[in-house]
Amino acid sequence: MHQLLERYCATLFDLYTPDQWVPHITLAMGDLSSEDLQLFKENNHHMKPVLTPKVDHLSLVEFKEDGSVALL
After folding, report:
1. Distance (Å, whole) CA 26 – CA 16
2. 17 phi and psi angles, rounded to 5 deg
3. Distance CA 72, CA 60 (A)
4. Phi/psi zone of residue 55: left (φ > 0), alpha (ψ -120 to 50 degrees), beta?
5. What residues pair up with 69 in beta bridges, in sequence order?
6. Of 4, 20, 23, 40, whose CB is crowded by the most CB atoms within 10 A?
7. Quick one: which of 54, 59, 56 has its CA closest to 72?
8. Cross-strand partners of 70
9. Portion of the chain with pLDDT greater than 90, in percent
10. Cα–Cα distances in Å, from 72 out to 15, 27, 67?
11. Which range in 8-17, 37-46, 48-57 is most confidently predicted, on average pLDDT?
12. N-terminal to C-terminal alpha carbon distance within the chain
């Protein structure tokens, strides 16, 4: 997937390369001020999100010394 994106995208974030990527959910990206974050924390500290992940694919991989990843 990353190789395909590299071919057609002008800019890719380094954190999304196969050797750097970590599963996550981005809630804000560079558009949240420190003041707004503090306000959010104060107003929502009691909330506990309920996230029920659904695994629809699982792969076993091996990280090679040359930096590549092999599907096992």
Report:
1. 12
2. -70, 155
3. 6
4. beta
5. 63
6. 40
7. 59
8. 62
9. 10
10. 24, 33, 15
11. 37-46
12. 17
> Residue 61's Cα: distance from chain center in Å?
18
Per-residue pLDDT tens for 17-43? 778 877 777 777 778 898 998 998 999
The structure's pTM equals 0.37
Are 3 and 18 contacting, i.e. CB atoms less than 8 angstroms apart? no
Query: Is the pLDDT score of 72 beyond 80?
Result: yes
Mean pLDDT within 49-58: 79
Token code pair at residue 1: 């997937």
Helix (H, G, I), strand (E, B) or coil at 16: helix
Residues in the chain: 72
CB 59 within 8 A of CB 51: no
pLDDT at 38: 92
Q: Which residue has the tokens 């991989």?
A: 61
